[in-house]
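Predict the assembly for these two chains.
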Amino acid sequence: MNELKIEDLSCKRGESKVLNNINLTIKSGETLVVKGRNGSGKTTLLRILSNFITSYQGKVSLNDLSILEDNLYNNKFNLIGQKNSLKDNLSIKKNLELWDIIFNETLDHVKLLEHDNLDHLINRDVGSLSDGQKKCISLYRLNYNKYEFWFLDEPFVYLDEVNTNLLIEKINRFNENMGIVILTSNINLPKKFHKEFNI
Amino acid sequence: MLNLIKRDLLLSFYSSANFFFTVSFFVLILILIPFAIGTQSDQLKNLFKGVVWIALALSIIITVDRIYNADYEDGNLDIIMQKNKTIEYLVISKYVTHWFIYCLPLLVILPILSFLFYLDYLETIQIFINLFIGSFGMVFIANFVSALTLGAKRTIFLKAIIMIPLFVPFIIFGSDAGSWPILLGLSMLSFVISIYVTAYGLRLYGE
């Protein structure tokens, strides 16, 4: 059972204060949707949670141990940022091979892409795909499954209805396996998740 | 660390055009010399010993965008930094791959070029040793400049302006045959500075 706790979190970016006294608790099997206007600090919050930003006031802890001191923490989460992490000049197949090496896990790509209805794209160059297709491939990283947390930054942007539902289904399944999901979103989602937070 | 080296090598193998460009760039710069000053063997010989360093410096400058910037722009750097908690290891593996992909091919082709410039095998070996040692130092410098200018797009000129003065000591001592210990010292010095500054630059980017 994991418990991720954010206490009195404040963070400055340059001169402006983007996060002000945030208190949140999220437990295994839950999904938190972070909402807020453009520039309100949603991405900053995710980058604090993923240990990229380390200068902030307040405390973020996993099971009462600060994430800054937890050496194993970095192997526990899967962060999907707004960038796709794809090389435009390579085919999807080659991109996935490169990911396999970084993630240190070899997946059965054909089968998994088939499940997401993306298998026909496997030999296409990433540069020739639409933004929506790129986003789908970028979310393919969720298949690497050693993780206890998913941090998703605007995952629904560019996705059509079918793919949105597919992603929601994946998030639900991850929650059932006691995973924690924190996602940011500006749009109204078709499904209510466990918790919502307005920055 | 080994994963990252493997990944970078595979990536450069997939986009092997990059590597081919660097080698041809290096060769073409050197081939320009006889066109400019004629083919008298003594003159060519002396010029080659100096110009080969300028060619190496320019070849490293044109690759500097590919060290961290490419991964930064498409978002892969986030994943890489997350997986490599000790950033110094990440930096060292980047040194290894950058040198292996962009400097080693130039050293391999060097004996053929020096034959074209009438150098005998002893002189070739001396140049080879100097370039081998000096290229490491130049790679260290290129890495920290790349890390410090992360996020600044299309700034190859800025990077060149920062890097060229830092390459000057290598070029001064590089063209002198017996000065490999000085080059070794310079390379070691730039390693110490570079690993600290590169890691700092990457952490700063993460913020």
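Residues 161-176 of chain A form the longest helix (16 residues). Helices of chain A lie at 42-49, 92-103, 109-115, 131-139, 161-176.
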